[in-house]
């Protein structure tokens, strides 16, 4: 689904001159919107040596005194830097750290990727976190994980509560042996009722157990879910494609590299489905939040809620992002910011004040 969107955006290099000129104009305006000139602000990006390779890290915020959010992006292989303009308002209240993991974005375009495994991404994430602690002179950061990033974000938060002030999952992906046959068969029925019998048969052939799927099966499933979900279709058309196409930080070649990186990263997606969130554990020693798009058919609310109900944490909250599907935080950035400000920020700032006292 997203690979196709990226490839579509990247191949418009042969578009009419007028379209490319319009793109350049919009990108210049977007770059101006991203400018940070506050006295205590930060806007830096570049390669940092992480896990033996150079990895791209971007840090942005209007006030370094604000809490720090470290994002774990989705995909695998989809950088969150595409969405910088949509989340510009977040930077007034938080310092946002965006990291292109191995196989993703500018990290992928820079050269050799080394080992791309679930365990290696976990190791990298710990190293990135410690780099951020040192760079921003902070003891803890909020871990904000979306989609694929939320799979290993759970283990990261559970294993290293000393590094994080809270865990926030969105598009929360709950991998594990507990299959979601109901959602799978609902997609099959919607395909049939829409006259897509051949597509329904293809989906039935791969079966409802994702632990047996190949990378191609995962791609087919995502594509077919998107094809019968009007919310996802609208999100791609109105948010995802424009965010990529008009991003001031990404040239056309960067969009192509992004699509290539997603293809490269399919291997880790297949490996990550073997991770079982319930078996790994449901006890967390830090505040735990899930903010899920109410219409998300890729990472359904019901499954995220079942896991959340089993979680034991010093504080936990679950909230729905209304009128949102997958990529909920970027589709409804103002609503997501309100959740961060009312539920997460007071908790982490109070903890910081107690630590200082």
Treating each run of at least 4 consecutive H or I residues as one helix, how many helices?
Answer: 15
* CATH-assigned fold name of the domain at 37-176 and 275-356: Rossmann fold
CATH architectural name of the domain at 37-176 and 275-356: 3-Layer(aba) Sandwich
CATH class of the domain at 37-176 and 275-356: Alpha Beta
N-end to C-end Cα span: 49 Å
Mean pLDDT: 89
Strand arrangement, major sheet: 1-2-4-3-5-6-7-8
Structural class: alpha/beta
* Cα shape: globular
Relative helix content: 40-55%
Organism: Nocardia colli
Catalytic activity: Release of N-terminal proline from a peptide
GO molecular function: aminopeptidase activity
Domain AB hydrolase-1: 67-332
Note the main attributes of this structure.
alpha/beta, Rossmann fold, eight-stranded mixed β-sheet, 15 helices, 15% strand, protease, cytoplasm, aminopeptidase activity, Peptidase_S33
What can you see in these coordinates?
The chain has 357 residues and is of the alpha/beta class. It has a domain at 37-176 and 275-356: Alpha/Beta hydrolase fold, catalytic domain (Rossmann fold, 3-Layer(aba) Sandwich). It is 50% helix and 15% strand. The chain has 15 helices and eight strands. The chain has helices at residues 2-10, 17-34, 105-110, 118-136, 148-159, 181-193, 197-206, 215-227, 230-245, 252-264, 266-272, 277-280, 301-310, 328-331, 333-356; strands at 42-50, 53-61, 68-72, 95-99, 141-146, 164-170, 288-293, 316-321. The protein has an eight-stranded mixed β-sheet, sandwiched between helices. Helix 1 runs parallel beside helix 9, helix 1 packs antiparallel against helix 10 (252-264) and helix 6 packs antiparallel against helix 7 (197-206). The longest helix is centred in the last third of the chain and has 24 residues, at 333-356. The termini are far apart. The model has no long low-confidence stretch (mean pLDDT 89).
């Amino acid at each position: 689904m997203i690979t196709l969107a990226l490839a579509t955006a990247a191949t418009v290099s042969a578009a009419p001159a007028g379209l490319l000129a319009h793109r350049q104009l919009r990108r210049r305006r977007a770059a101006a919107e991203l400018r940070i000139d506050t006295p205590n602000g930060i806007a830096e990006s570049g390669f940092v040596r992480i896990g033996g390779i150079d990895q791209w890290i971007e840090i942005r915020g209007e006030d370094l005194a604000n809490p720090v959010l470290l994002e774990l992006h989705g995909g695998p292989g989809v950088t969150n830097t595409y969405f910088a303009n949509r989340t510009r308002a977040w930077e007034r209240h938080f310092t946002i750290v965006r990291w292109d993991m191995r196989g993703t974005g500018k990290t992928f375009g820079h050269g050799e990727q080394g080992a791309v495994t679930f365990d290696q991404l976990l190791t990298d994430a710990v190293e990135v976190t410690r780099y951020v602690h040192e760079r921003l002179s902070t003891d803890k950061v909020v871990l904000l994980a979306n989609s694929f990033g939320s799979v290993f974000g759970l283990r990261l938060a559970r294993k290293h509560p000393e590094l994080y002030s809270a865990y926030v999952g969105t598009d929360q992906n709950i991998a594990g042996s507990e299959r979601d046959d109901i959602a799978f068969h609902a997609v099959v029925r919607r395909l049939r009722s829409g006259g897509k019998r051949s597509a329904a048969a293809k989906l039935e052939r791969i079966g409802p157990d994702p632990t047996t799927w190949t990378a191609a099966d995962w791609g087919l499933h995502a594509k077919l879910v998107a094809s019968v979900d009007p919310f996802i279709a609208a999100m791609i058309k109105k948010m995802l494609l424009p965010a990529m196409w008009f991003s001031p930080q990404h040239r056309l070649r960067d969009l192509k590299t992004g699509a290539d990186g997603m293809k490269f990263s399919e291997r880790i997606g297949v490996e990550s489905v073997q991770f079982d969130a319930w078996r790994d554990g449901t006890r967390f020693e830090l505040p735990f939040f899930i903010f899920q798009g109410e219409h998300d058919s890729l990472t359904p609310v019901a499954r995220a809620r079942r896991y959340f109900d089993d979680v034991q944490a010093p504080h936990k909250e679950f909230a729905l992002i209304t009128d949102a599907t997958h990529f909920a935080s970027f589709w409804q950035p103002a609503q997501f910011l309100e959740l961060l400000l009312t539920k997460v920020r007071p908790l982490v700032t109070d903890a910081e004040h107690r630590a200082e006292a």
